[in-house]
Amino acid sequence: MAIRQYNVLFLCVGNSAWSPMAEAIMNRMGRDAFRAYSAGLRPAGGLDPFALHQLQAVRFPVEGLRAKSWTEFTEPGAPKLDFVFSVCDLESESIHPVWLGDPLVAHWGVPDPSGFEGTEQGRRNAFHRCFISLQNRINLLMALPLEKVDHMSPLRPDLATALPHATPSRGPGPWRGLT
Questions:
Q1: Residue 167 lies in a domain
Q2: Fewer CB atoms inside 10 A, N or C side of the chain?
Q3: What are 112's strand-pairing partners?
């Protein structure tokens, strides 16, 4: 029997640091079971050089990574998403994407490495900490029993216990289900 592949979108505002790192991590570690993408609400002109350096330092492929808009995932022919994870603060944004296919939506708050002020080595360390945090959360997601993931519903608050660092949302907002 063929293994089901889950499509995962990592979403951030600029799609220049957090979300492309998460995309690269998931695609490297989740190979057969997961296919990752990343996007931004307002994509930056390119990827943060410190994010690229972090990925290259651990020999993760960076080919094909680019800053792109979330709208690419709402167009005809876009992959059907199973999971959407915001990895930065999107609550303050006025854009509230609606995803086709009812993916499980969750928020993984990760400190912004781009906001670090200090030395170049300090910035590299901030990106390394972000990478490790994302890698740990992705490992936990991949450890879930996949046969049970197919039965998850984004409207069930008890799913918060199944996903790393996810909590049920409270009231209306862009991240209905789990945030």
A1: no
A2: N
A3: none
Separation between Cα atoms, residue 115 and residue 102, nearest integer Å: 32
Give the integer Cα–Cα distance in Å for 167 and 53.
32
Q: What is the pTM of this model?
A: 0.80
* Residue written as token pair 């994509």: 43
Which of 76, 77, 11, 18 shows the shortest CA–CA distance to 38?
A: 11
Q: Which residues contact 75 (CB under 8 A, 6 or more apart)?
A: none
Residue 10 lies in a domain: yes
Structural domains in the chain (count): 1
Residue ranges of the chain whose pLDDT lies below 70: 1-2, 89-96, 146-147, 149-179
Q: Which domain holds residue 138?
A: 6-161
| CATH code at position 96 | 3.40.50.2300
* DSSP secondary structure, 12-46, as one string: ESSSSSHHHHHHHHHHHHSTTTEEEEEEESS--SS
Whether residue 28 contacts residue 61, with contact meaning beta carbons closer than 8 Å, is answered with: yes
Both tokens assigned to 174: 């862009």
pLDDT by residue (tens digit) across 149-172?
Answer: 665 544 444 444 444 444 333 333
pLDDT at res. 93: 55
